[in-house]
Design brief:
single chain, 222 residues, alpha+beta, Nucleoside Triphosphate Pyrophosphohydrolase, Arc Repressor Mutant, subunit A, seven-stranded mixed sheet, 26% strand
Length: 222
C-alpha cells in the first residue's frame, strides 16, 4: 500500500505539527550581576516552579503579540519591544510534547522592573550567582538564558550601554564598570576609553565627585 504522505497530493495537514511557544529572557543588571527575570508558574504543569515568562501561541496570533501578552499577564511588564533571539527545537526540551520555542530577549533597566518585582510571583535571578536555579529551569529555559546572555555580551562589545541600563549622563568609570559586569571580566581602562569615547557625546559638565574625583559626564551618541 502506497504511503499517502509520499503522494504529491498529500495535504500538509497529514504531517504532525509541533506546538509553538514564545519564551522571553528579560535581562538587567542588579547588585553587580547580570540577572534574568523569572516568574512562578501558576499552570498545573510545573506549578510553583520558576521559569522564563512564556506562553503558547494562540490561533492567528503573531509572535510579537504573544510575547507582549505573556509579559503583561505573567510579569506585569508592558511598553517593551523584545527582539527575537533564536528558535529552540530540541525534541526533548519539553516533556509535554513536541514544542518549538521562539525565544526572545529584552534588556530592561532595573528601575523599569520595580513595579513587576513587587509581586511574589516575579523575581530576578543572577545568571552567575545562582547557577543551580538557572540550570534547573524547566522547558530548556537554561539554554535560552545562556544564549540571551551571550547575545548581551556581544552587543556590549560594540557599543556603549546599548540596553540603556545606565541613566544619562554618566562617567566613563560608570560605563566601564557596567560593561565589566556584562562581560564578567575586568576591562583595560585606557583601551576601553579609546574605544568608547568616539561613540559618546560630552555634556560639558562634571560629576559632583561623590564617587572619587569629579569626572566628565557623557551621553550615548545618537
Amino acid at each position: 500500500m502506497k504511503d499517502s504522505k509520499n503522494s504529491p497530493a498529500a495535504s500538509l495537514l497529514d504531517y504532525p505539527r509541533p506546538s509553538v511557544a514564545v519564551d522571553t529572557a528579560v535581562l538587567t543588571v542588579a547588585d553587580g550581576s547580570v540577572c534574568v527575570l523569572l516568574v512562578r508558574r501558576a499552570e498545573d504543569h510545573q506549578r510553583g516552579k520558576w521559569a522564563l515568562p512564556g506562553t503558547f501561541l494562540r490561533e492567528r496570533e503573531t509572535l510579537a503579540d504573544a510575547v507582549l501578552r505573556c509579559l503583561r499577564e505573567k510579569a506585569g511588564i508592558s511598553g517593551r519591544v523584545p527582539r527575537q533571539l533564536q528558535v529552540f527545537d530540541e525534541p526533548g526540551r519539553d516533556d509535554r510534547g513536541w514544542v518549538l520555542s521562539v525565544a526572545h530577549v529584552d534588556v530592561v533597566p532595573l528601575a523599569a522592573l520595580e513595579e513587576a518585582l513587587k509581586s511574589d510571583g516575579v523575581r530576578l535571578a543572577s545568571v552567575t550567582g545562582e547557577p543551580e536555579l538557572i540550570a534547573g529551569l524547566p522547558y530548556g529555559h537554561a539554554d535560552i538564558v545562556a544564549k540571551a546572555v551571550a547575545w548581551l555580551q556581544a552587543a556590549y562589545l560594540d557599543a556603549p550601554d546599548p540596553g540603556a541600563l545606565l541613566d544619562e549622563p554618566f562617567t566613563l568609570k560608570d560605563l566601564r564598570e557596567l560593561h565589566e559586569v556584562v562581560a564578567g571580566a575586568p576591562l583595560m581602562r585606557d583601551t576601553f576609553r579609546r574605544f568608547m569615547e568616539p561613540k559618546l557625546a560630552g555634556t560639558g559638565q562634571m560629576s559632583d565627585g561623590t564617587r572619587g574625583r569629579p569626572s566628565r559626564l557623557w551621553v550615548r551618541r545618537n
